[in-house]
Description:
Helix content is 44%, strand content 17%. The protein contains twelve helices and ten strands.
Amino acid sequence: MPLxxxxxxxxxxxxxxxxxxxAILIYSHAVRLAYRFFGRPEAKPPYDRSPLSIDxxxxxxxxxxxxYSNRMNVLDWQMTAFDGIKLYAYFLPAAKKExxxxxxxxxxYNDHPSVMAAFAQLHLEKRDCHILIxxxxxxxxxxxxxxxxGLYDSQDxxxxxxxxxxxxxxxxxxxxxGRSMGAAAAIMAAGSGIAPDSLRGIIAxxxxxxxxxxMAHLYQRDHRFFVRPFLxxxxxxxxxxxxxxxxxxAPEEIxxxxxxPVLLFHGTDDELVPSTMSDNVYNRIRAPKRICxxxxxxxCMSYNDxxxxxxxxxxxxxENIADNEWQRLIGRxxxxxxxxxxxxxxxx
Length: 348
């Protein structure tokens, strides 16, 4: 065999080997990315315990400190989810047993559920109400090895609302208040079509609009390039290994089905979940809605950076929930708040 042909064959074999190695590396990277996104971020602790350290320089840290100072007043509730896993929640009963108002607080990805205690304080300052803080699946004391990203959590939330009715009786008035992943879960629960009539309103802080779009944004931000075929491979791996359909996790798509008032918050300097994502959700909502952008706030820091504005918006939201006119004007009335210092601008 001529030397030239041997050299060509060797080059071809080497190129094939290199291509195979590159393919293996790409596939391995896609698998790692899928596990990083959907695997449980931290192992379930053997018992419920407070975070090892609490930064009290933020309103959320001070809220956590308040929560653990009052831990003896908090009940631990458990429930079995639709797929058989055990879910856990904190329940802080209202001062008056006959109270029918409930606020369900939904934490974000890799948050300790107690981080939502600052919002519990905010709502309790306004009126007497029951507070439920679920540990979302694959977080805290709840079981599960696959993060729900709002898709599975929305079904869990509906079950928690039904569970509340069995424990507290009928005629409840429930508000869902979530941040980040918890905000997406609240939106998807409200638009699921199976939420009980006791659901009265949604407060969504820093929600994403679609999980695949969020993953693309984060991957491009971290790696400075974006390859759609690569994320399609991640989507396929996620479905095969976790049974999670990423394309169905899209609060934006389900937002048009919501029939209760919605209040959205987002910081303008959010680098994790761009504020345009809340805008996209807002534009799809047909129910009465408001969106408030907090200038300069980073991810989930709107309440910390503008507590008075945040509280005032929730006061207005609660007043509107109680206003029967809002129910008659579903799909006709909305408002945007671009700057905290300026007066609200109303759109027809």
